Amino acid sequence: MTHSVSPGTKLKMTQSQTTPGQNGSKHICSIFREQPWQTKLVADSLAAGIKQGEKGLLIGSHALITEVNGRLEKEIGDFRQAIANKQLEFMDEQKFYLSGGTFSLERVLSQIDQAYQQALADGFKGLRGIGEMNWVLKAWDAWESLFTYEVKLTELLKDKNLHVICLYDPTLFPAKHLYRAMLTHPYLATESYTGVSPTYVPAEQFLEEQWKKRFDNTSLNQTGKQFIVVEQKADQANPEEKPLTDQLLDQIKDYILLINSDGTIHYMNQSALHRFGNQVNRLCHESIFKGVRPCPICQLFQLAGEGKEKIETEIQDQKGAHLNLSGYPRADVQGAGGLIVYLRDVTQRRKWEEELAFMDKFSSLGYLSSGIAHELNNNLTPILICSQMLAQSQLPESVQQKAQKIETCATECKRLVDSLTDFAQKIPHRKDFADLNQIMQKTVDLMEYRLRTANVKVELKLDQSLPYLLVDELKIQQVFSNIITNAYQVMQGSGGKITITSTWRENWCRFEIADTGPGIPAEIRSKIFDPFFTTRQIGEGKGLGLSTAFGIISAHQGKISFETQFGVGTTFSVELPVQASLQEGLRKEVLAAPSITQPVG
After folding, report:
1. Average pLDDT, the chain
2. Cα 389 to Cα 566: distance, rounded to the nearest angstrom
3. Which domains does the chain have, with CATH numbers?
4. How many Å apart are CA 545 and CA 418, to the nearest integer?
């Protein structure tokens, strides 16, 4: 049965249309413009499930998971106990939906069913799965099967205590796809309405080809617009009916906008629609460039008024992407001065440029460090030999004590020189096949006392299928120790948590060390791996921990990087290569569980 509502009707929740997922299976389409509303829905649903003895599974971005964690802490107190009991689990949306880089309808449905069966086997009453759907915006081949997947998922939920909420962002998804999402979900949740979807179409009817062809022109769209905050134009029915110029513009992968003189968006090509959602007839600073101050379009209009024929600038949008923006003056539909705006995402290019500059700097520093280390070693060697000889000779005790002090200072200097040598990658590493999980476990065990006295807890999530790697075990342990030391020191006194995760995929093993510290200020991020750079007081640190780690990982042909959010925390990532020919032969036997989650401290 299809529910229909006249366009002017204001819907209200009935007693049976309370918070989605309270009783029986439900498949809910969530469309929220404001992030706090969506976070509340997700946290409330997970909290309700936990209290009812169900398992919660949140599949989303790091940002969403962090916000939901904060909300859950207020809702149910120490929700980390639920994580420890495997009653609450978080997964990355890209890894879940796009395993191997592609979307497979059958594989994802199988994963959901397996997660449900595992929840029951673990003694839980059911499963609540919540998935953020933004991953599909980066997988164009998934569009065709996405809504078939939604239909099949509704069928899968029947006769199961399994609730699924799919989160669609109306500022990113084109109207056509938002309507399809509403058509394939029996339930709907927005800021103003929660309950049975008035546009739901039964599975067998939606899968009919004639329905797909005619649904864009039905009154159903008018009903659906009540529930989507952004008013958007429907796409033209057939691409071949579009003018040739529109067809050409739609083939361009960069983003093209036509802006009227009053700042409203008059036209967007298909790439822009996919990237920003349909923002036609909306003011630029309230839609695409919301949160970007000053508004780049207003600046372009000002420069265009000065007679410039082409204006270029670069901006960073709300999601942190770098966009190269070019503006060309034109006459708009009213005959007044408008703009043709051409946007190109240069985020990856800027990242490559930063990495290239980074490597150039470290190449120069490494060359300089190796020269300094060589000269210092030449002078330190006789100092150490002579001081040791003096300390062992038949000289007055006061002279021997001074000789021992000289030896102690010279030994400390040699340690610093060795660190410089590591950074310069000149020291040959003694490599053998080793278990990196064991190295990490040993490192944490050795640091347990310092972590406990600093009031810092450590949680290990180590993938037991990790292959053995050809590494210098002592050097890798030094890398782990240096990173963990930095993490707990920034949280010393206030306390916090360090989460260590190991994974491997294709030819790389990856360790992530995430802390809940204050984050790294923007002004010093470019100096983090510089030798002798430290934020601690004089005498508290030499500033060689991370530069040494960088040198060691580089010598292993690996990569080390970090992501940080001021006031939230920092995650350091260490990646080491696995030789393809050795992956299977040296891979350890997988334990009963694919991973372990172990709190420490």
Report:
1. 76
2. 53
3. 26-227 (3.40.50.300), 239-345 (3.30.450.20), 349-423 (1.10.287), 432-600 (3.30.565.10)
4. 12
DSSP code, position 134:
G
- Residue 570's φ and ψ, nearest 5 degrees, are -135, 140
What digits encode the pLDDT tens for the residues 44-101?
A: 999 989 889 999 999 998 888 888 888 887 777 667 788 888 899 999 888 888 887 7
Place of tokens 């060795």: 418
**pLDDT greater at residue 367 or residue 560:** 560
Side-chain half-sphere exposure of 567, counting CA atoms within 13 A: 0
- Residues 233-247: b if buried by 16+ CB within 10 A, e if exposed: eebeeeeeeeeeeee
User: Which candidate, 27, 22, 1, 38, places its Cα nearest to that of 184?
Assistant: 27
- Residues 6 or more apart whose Cβ sits within 8 Å of residue 27: 150, 153, 154, 157, 163, 164, 166, 185, 186, 187
Burial of 267 (0-12, 13-18, 19+ CB in 10 A): middle
Report which DSSP code applies to 466: P
Counting every residue written for the chain, the total comes to 601
Q: Residue 481 phi/psi, 5° resolution?
A: -65, -45
Residue 332's pLDDT is 53
In this structure, what token pair is assigned to residue 305? Answer: 């008024």
Distances (CA, A) of 258 to 232, 268, 279, 326, 543: 16, 7, 11, 12, 51
Structure tokens at 148: 């078939």
Residue 280: other Cβ atoms inside 10 A: 19
Residue at 48: amino acid letter: A
Residue 293 backbone class (left: φ over 0; alpha: ψ -120 to 50; beta: rest): beta
Residues 6 or more apart in contact with residue 349 via CB below 8 angstroms: 322
pLDDT band at 542 (very low <50, low <70, confident <90, very high): low
- The answer to whether the beta carbons of residues 264 and 272 sit under 8 Å apart is no
Determine how many CB atoms are found less than 10 A away from the CB of residue 562: 18
Q: How far apart are CA 361 and CA 349, in angstroms?
A: 18
